[in-house]
User: Fold these one by one.
Assistant:
Number 1:
Amino acid sequence: TGYITIDPGYKNTGATKSAITFLDGEEGVLNYRGYSIEDLAEKSSFLEVAYLLIYGELPTEKQFAEFEHEIRTHTLVNEDMRKIFEGFPVNAHPMGVLSSLVSAMSAFYPDANAQNSEAETQLHIIRLLAKLPTIATWSYKKSQGHPVNYPQNELDYCSNFLNMMFSLPVAKYNVDPVVSAALNKLLILHADHEQNCSTSTVRLVGSSHANIFSSISSGISALWGPLHGGANQEVIEMLEAIKADGGDTQKYINMAKDKSSGFRLFGFGHRVYKNFDPRARIIKKAADDVLNKLGINDPVLEIAQKLEKAALEDDYFVQRKLYPNVDFYSGIIYRALGIPTNMFTVMFAIGRLPGWIAQWKEMRVNKEPIGRPRQIYTGAPKRDFVPMSERK
Ligand code: CMC
């Protein structure tokens, strides 16, 4: 069977050629379709970036108006999906609910299993982009014992999501432009990150020609893990634990250095970035700005800053090139926006959706073969079957 090279975790194995995202881990560079993340976060909107990732170019005014209009007209979710949702327990994790309901979309749109035309695929893409925020807000509403909100299609993408989250039938919610702008920036920073764990999952599942909803649902499940997108929830829980423990950051740094503790400093380290994570830089500054603008004094921010400083001065972290990653400060902003901790990874999923879609589409358009890694067998040699009555 030829030569098999083992590379656990694919640390040095390229799985595909891709024209979507450029990442230079040594220099801390991240570009979507050639545009720097710094520029996009400052000057663009999340839907514009979604268009760029999926279709390859920034949209003209006309293209953008059409794209946004299409999304607006698909924000409503089939009422039968609500019935599925109602069966979940109130304490269900919102990520479990999200991946299940996106998977359920494949049952509601079974034509996605067929060999789709470009127009049909386009409709599935629009449905995903339009419905994910609506579905995401249901979990929060249920946790509060409140009725779900229907989308308000005169609102832009981020404001619509915030309105579905926070508006109540008894008290209209006015979307604060500071909040909506901060959300827009966070979603842009999460929109793609080349062949990370969840994206590779989407491509691998999709490589069997599984439908787009099932492929994206698998990506959501992969994102949930604490070593990947789930880290943003872990970070805030860790910072809160440090606060409750009297703010002793050194104790947690020592614990992270001690391999036998099994504890890692969440929000630190990255497979590819070895000098800094450019997203973390932008988010750190945004966290400061947003808290200032909203007049919030969050003691957890102080703990985060203290922890970051101590880690960056510690030999263990310096030698291993462990720097704060995108998840380190994002939770502090989400908290300031009123998003509950157990929904942080859902926010990551909403942001990453255009990237998953773009990567799924690229894989199919390029007619990539089914993903099928090999192995080196290390189990028992061939042996004879022993009937159960003779087994010791
Ligand atoms: N705390 C303490 N030690 C760490 C940490 C950490 N957060 N991260 C890595 N190390 C150590 C690790 O023990 C190893 O030490 P040694 O060489 O002595 O065995 C060395 O640094 C290299 O780590 P690795 O686990 O081989 O690196 P990796 O590329 O396989 O893992 C990572 C990358 C992000 C999974 C890891 O750094 C980690 O677990 N970080 C915490 C979780 C986290 O913040 N994840 C979010 C990543 S960014 C956004 C995203 O992907 O969603």
Number 2:
Amino acid sequence: MKTHRVALIPGDGIGRDVVDAAWSVLQALAARSGFALSGTEFPWSCAFYKETGRMMPEDGIETLRAFDAILLGAVGWPAEVPDSVSLHGLLLPIRKAFVQYANIRPHRLLPGVQGPLKAEGFDILCIRENTEGEYSGAGGRVHQGLDNEVAVETSIFTRKGVERIIRFGFEQARSRRGKLASVTKSNAQKYSMVFWDEITKQLAAEYPDVAVTSYHVDALAARMVMAPDSLDVIVASNLFGDILTDLGAAIQGGLGFAASANINPDRSAPSMFEPVHGSAPDIAGKGIANPMAAIWSGAMMLDHLGEKDAAARVMAAVSAVTAKGIGTVPGKDSTDAITAAVIAALTTE
Ligand code: NAD
Ligand code: IPM
Ligand code: MN
């Protein structure tokens, strides 16, 4: 029997609850399928930082490299560790080191979930560039604390990085409804974003079957609210993709439903699966975190590992549960109750 080796990083806050939930669903499924999942847990988190002075050990990346996939909860506990330290010490280096350049985030309403919009039939796949752009970490501050202080944060866009993510967007659009929205702010940012628009145009010639439109990010944000059903695949830079996918989460009923996959398309290193949301300090410890985003991310992991039927079964169980109104209203059902309902649905769906 095939065994997939998964590194589990619950992280901080509700990360623990939702990784436990997703992992128990995946284990229940594996028990009924022709494969096994072995999980190795790593306690890397803000608590780990407080004990050791690091978010993960020095050889953390090398340790993770041996796994087939990574399932992560959330990183960040800003009351105790600055976000700029915790995220640059754990989550962001994994995405970069493992060249997980495509961050895939699906936005659609699960059955029974009431979104805030009138439109219900939307099905958007946001492809977010995940290794460079505004998150390059290049910059600095001079004259700190003085009146003439200056802070610089440089966005780095490489031809290789931009081409591969836009190409990935075209490929996804080709396998879906054939529409690609390429997002920039090239009316204001005249170097990187004009570069992005040019590369979109160049690649469009290779994909005559895909209808591509370039949007400014502000207009695209409005379109996501006013006409989400007019969108299919969106491809955006790191920061724009980050913001648009919290908007996507909102229109699909909330952050508790938004899943994501940090994919290394070349499979030269493990990919990482995590909900879009963070550690939610405001509800941490209350047992009411919605585990659906993490469970959905787990389904994306199975799909990536080649277990397509199993992935579809997880999503069928999730949909059967939300269709009954379980887990659809924030705070109404406990994390455990929602998880138990999904596991029960796996046997009946
Ligand atoms: P957040 O996503 O943690 O929370 C935003 C709001 O959404 C909160 O009101 C929260 O209660 C709610 N929410 C989030 N997930 C939920 C769930 N599963 N079920 C029900 N409600 C949910 O964003 P934030 O408050 O800006 O960030 C908190 C910490 O998490 C910060 O340290 C931040 O940097 C970090 N963060 C980490 C990740 C990640 O690890 N990928 C993502 C986003 C934020
Ligand atoms: C996300 C998060 C991260 C990001 C933060 C925590 C660095 O918001 O995964 O969407 O911006 O990528
Ligand atoms: Mn985000």
Number 3:
Amino acid sequence: QGMDAPAHVLVFPWPLQGHINCMLHLTAALLDAGFRVTFLHTEHNLSRLARAALPPGLRLLSVPDGLPDDHPRSVRSLKELTESMFTTGSAAYRALLLSLRSDSDAPPLTCVIADGIMPFAVDIAEELGVPALAFRTASACSYLAYLSVPTLVELGEVPFPADDPVRGVPGMEGFLRRRDLPRGVGRSEDGAFDPMLLAIAEGIAHAGKARALILNTAASMEGPALARIAPHMRDLFAIGPLHAEHDAAASLWSEDDSCMAWLDGHGDRSVVYVSLGSLAVISHEQFTEFLAGLVATGYAFLWVLRPDMVKTTGSVLREAVKEAGSKARVVEWAPQRGVLRHRAVGCFLTHGGWNSTLEAAAEGVPMVCWPFFADQQINSRFVGAVWRTGLDMKDLCNRAIVQGKVREAMESGELRGRAHAMAQQLKLDVAVGGSSSSDLERLVGFIRELRA
Ligand code: UDX
């Protein structure tokens, strides 16, 4: 490959919102470094995406995800999506890599950066002679917990719901409880062992086979976990929070920008922003408890209620919110990073997804976490007990808890002070000379080297 042709990277996210967003931020960073980037969506997502905000110069390609177009891509169908991506999706990906060999529109691929949740994407690329790096979109603390699953099983520290201290995740013995461990789809209230967990953990450890693992985190937030992960990887890059320097997200839902003008009409730090991310679903009872708790705080609130989030139809929910008082604003999808940057937002009631956690951290907004599944359980423990930039509701959801935690997050100077300090530190991390910025530079060099 001629050294004058730019490096060409194929970026392949898992086809869900939280994965697409941060891999688009990564893409923007690679484009800034002068690379060619091809971004691989599923056909279904490509047809849903708002393309306006995509970085210029980005090439989009797609593979089928294997599900019928009208099939929901929700948390309830994650298992089906996984199965079809690992069969139909992976076969189409292999064919695509082969066809790119004789592609006259772009230089040959230098490497693939594949979502670390898809081991096949790494294996197939390497098999076809294309170097593959793995990118995990979640936190380093959750990564380490998944890596520790075999030990956790051996020690009998799963199943989860319990206050018992966990000894099986190195470096977290002092504060991690079983309730804080990552878990599979759905909230297993009965504590039954989730067989999916072993499969997920195995898939995650697979990144050790890739040329390197890239994490969207900063050493200042997760240094100890990063140090424990590094020996399992061929190389490790901690380059987050990516959106702070390269915001290039694209939504699968249409953003309701009208809430920005609504925020403009409110005083500084007087509004609670409520969003449970792209996958969480809640029961009608949980909706009612959240609503009553929020109303009882007396604060105005902006609430993201996705159309697929509560079984009850949207109009019934909106009516319930309207009846509860005029201080509420409901949207189906918000321009979240803009909302969190807005001076009117005082705290963030969130599920603790890793993107949301980083977005709040970068703006210094205190959080109240109600984790739904996967990495969110351990993220929220770090928010509440390690960084202490917010409060963790964990598995409890009733109006008194919502009211109490939200009030405290809105009013505590200590929480706000720590959140603010973390935001300051993260600004340094992503600025030239900072740890994340240096690791990004090292990553760019690493990819250039692959061409040689
Ligand atoms: C889940 C995981 O928990 C997360 O850690 C993992 O990396 C991806 O899968 P998700 O439920 O999508 O993620 O939450 P989160 O990681 O917070 O991502 C949601 C994204 O959607 C964020 O970038 C957020 O800014 C955006 N968003 C959310 C909006 O733009 N508008 C909204 O109204 C809500």
